[in-house]
Specification:
The chain is of the alpha/beta class. It is built from 14 helices and ten strands. Strand 1 (3-6), helix 1 and strand 2 form a beta-alpha-beta unit.
Amino acid sequence: MIRVGIPRALLYYQYYPAWKTFFEELGAEVVVSPPTSQAAVTSGSSRVVADTCLPVKVFLGHILSLVDKVDYIFVPAVRSVKSQVYNCAKFLGLPDMTSAVIPEAPPILDVDIDVNRGKRELYQSIYRLGRHFTWSPLKVRRAGLAAWQSHQNYRELMSSHGLTPPQAIERITGTSPVEPGVSLAEPDSVLGTIALVGHPYLLYDEHITHRLLNRLKQAHYRIVTPEMLAAAELDSGIARIAGKAYWTYEEEVVGAAGHYLQTSVDGIIGIMAFGCGPDSVMMDMVRREAIRKADTSFMSLTLEEHTAEAGLITRLEAFLDMILRKKRSGAAVCV
Ligand code: SF4
């Protein structure tokens, strides 16, 4: 059986159920890299220049952990999934970058996803991907439709049941996608609600966030995230803050923040990567809106490979203390 490696990084939390379904429908075995470790961060960082963003370094570390374990590695180039809305340049060149900096990697299965080129081009890209497993266009079509259905079910599960991607993946696959010792359960008692906004490859990577989700739950806060919102709620959040989306996945930052700033959450934490151009612009818009509205506390955290756990815990504790104070006094804070 052909083994296809999927790195547990970048777009994994957006599309894993769909990718898994597609390859399994075509008779392949899917192998996912283990949760991020310091060894993966270090090995990935060693292959690129220092100012490359942390999520790409982590991604390369995951690729390295799959070398020798699989026949192919799946590295899609997701350019655009919405008309006239584009992804950051790192995603566009991901397959080329991967093969350039990790020449020992198994053959890369890449696929160009760009809805602006029309449906015909999209279907042909998917067929070219499926041809590694079968010559039958019918089988590839069936696998593509099953993958699309699986993606719809995954999104629906998260938005209707208020689940994070790791919780939804655990329900779908029956196995936990996070490292042992990290609990996906909700807290027993709740002091308040915190919205986390940012890309899933930052929010749900327990290693690079120093177990932020777990810490919030241990502090008795309920967590809400972008994936728990319906598409219409995210779109109106973007309209409120930015007018119109320019970047793919802008809804995970601006859309979610625009929505949660209108609701009764106690605070919003925006998470972004050091050196990320799109995130620095989007998070700045969110911060300005939070200051303008002045009724929801906001804090942004910038992550890189040298982010110290003690520093992150100190900022988190200070933010939660201020939220409790605000609950008593009624004044919001932005840090
Ligand atoms: S959007 Fe930012 S964090 Fe994500 S891959 Fe691009 S530069 Fe890196």
